[in-house]
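Comment thread on ticket #2218

A.B. wrote:
> Attaching the input chain for the structure job we discussed in standup.
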Amino acid sequence: MGHPGRGETLRTGAELIWTHPLDLDVALLLLHDTVDVPGSVRWGHPVETAPLRYEGLGFPLASAEDSRDAEHLRGVLPPLSSGARGLYVLDQEPAPDHRDDGRKAWGGASGTAVFCENHLVGVVIRDDRSYGNRRLHALPAHRFIQDDGFEALLRRYDGGPPRLAEIGATLPTARPAAERSAAEQEAERILWSLLGGRITYAAHARALVRRLGYTVPDSHEVTVPDLAALVASHPRALPSLSTTLAPALTGEGERTRLTDVLTRARAGGLCLLLSLDEYEHLLELLRGICEEQPTLIPRAAREALRYVWLPEPLNRTHLCAEDLEHVVEHLESVSDSERVPDGTPPVPALLRLLECTAAALEEKSGTELRTWCDHVAARTGIHSVALAERRIDAGRWAAQRPSPLSRVVVEVSRAWTETRESYYCRITLARADGTHTPLHEAESAPRTPEEVARRLRDAIEVVADEIGPAAVPHATVLVARDSLHLPIDEWNPGAPNEFVPDQPIGAEFCITLSCPEMSELVRGREREHRRRWESGRAGPLVVGDEPVTPPRLRRLLQTTHRDAVQVVLHGRPEQRDALLELCLALGVPVVLWDRRADCPADGTGLQQVDPTGPLAGLPDRVRVFRGTAFDDPETVPARPALVWEEHSLRPRPESLTLQDPHEGAHAS
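C.D. wrote:
> Ran it. Output below, let me know if you need it in another format.
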């Protein structure tokens, strides 16, 4: 008992006398010894809408060296972000990096008591992978102190039932001028340039403070420095202030100045795009859309925001309501990259996405979203012509019928500068007509094989929705020549949920290889590649027991097997590697071999795959075999690798033509 850095600590035994009915990380312990503590626990319940400062002490794995040290958790608890799960969101200020060993950096922080204004308001139970390592979730105190068993024990040992006090955020007050941050100083300059006389200022300040959820006595006068401190600490304060301020600015110069201020403040990170009212209204609209059409918003984002780095939830099949806050906040700060009339702010990617979503909805729902966009554009000074052209683009996008998705294409390359085995990967979704939609992400970082496999599985789930339940999704992995030996099909993404056990990615989906680098090195390869596919699919060439030199293989592939689409390679690894590259250079689109084979006799290990059977079913036969090998690796030692290169596999962008809002011209 006690803090290891604050004097002596006391060691004592304890008895576990209560645990949470749902086995969450909350418990009551009865100590064996009497421990002198200052006062008793004060229980709190956050109210209103203003973010609260929180603190806690935990023992996360990130702080471990020889032993785990106490870590001072601190940050902001935004009550509006509690979400449908009824958990508090904790936005961490100091957040650990991901660990090299794949273990959770926050592991061990579960059970940390969360305090706001010296009141215990909840207990940490999990982290949130969607936000990296900067967000935790806490179980609110009111969800467990009202448990009959918990309450009875507190009555018995603490002298009475637990009482919840309502905890509201304290209005930030200005620090002495010399101690104010750069953000506070910039906010104060902005406010002096916008606000009018004392009476006008007082009305706007009081309206803003109350709307953001702060309780202020009628006798309290909020000063400009106080308001600047609030604007600097609350990312929606300035947009919310502009909501009441904009209608009062009748002059063109005043309105232009407000637009410039908002644009510069967003660019400088002083505020977000939306006011609190706009944000809450938008979340309400989008929750209804997610409930009725959970695939619509991710599809619109992938296709209409093709060149925008999308947050992780938009790179999945379905968008959950609990991820909306993260999606909206990310897109608020990103423009759609199109030009706009001179002197007007860029159009946020969020508005382009919402216009596309509205165009695909029924009339009533679509009208509500477009009305919301009109309001935000008017308040922020976005030119009506720019928004109108995004709306035209959205209508044309909703009217088109894109070719269905057919497979995932992932480019994998080794991150040689990393100390651990890591890879860069870039993923696109391929359509039946040869067009591709890239899956962008917020950062391009080296990933472990397991992380690459997880990203690949998430992308394949997107394709699986369109190809139908009968077909097995297919992923093509693009690698360099020196990476054809990588056991990518054996990379394990882990269990998809708590019920289904884990298995390698190649046992779940059809995973094949492709080597585009060979086409850059060998002139005429693409022509030969196309000719073999179109030749009528002659029987496969099996390079088996008898030694086959590269010259002999070349003659075979240019004479008796000139039209062969498939080669099956057996033999020793040092010979097999050279023959594999020769097959690819001569345009053979399908090559099968066993990575584990050491001699020609090992070729029998692939017999279960039926390597010379019907070509169309080969990728799925390999997938089934991989699952068998995973279940019984001792009896089934073979590890099949399959190059499968369909013609026109290389990604090319979609050709949807969109208008240029600046010139009225068309740009693809």
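A.B. wrote:
> Thanks. Noting for the ticket: The first strand starts at residue 14 and ends at 19.
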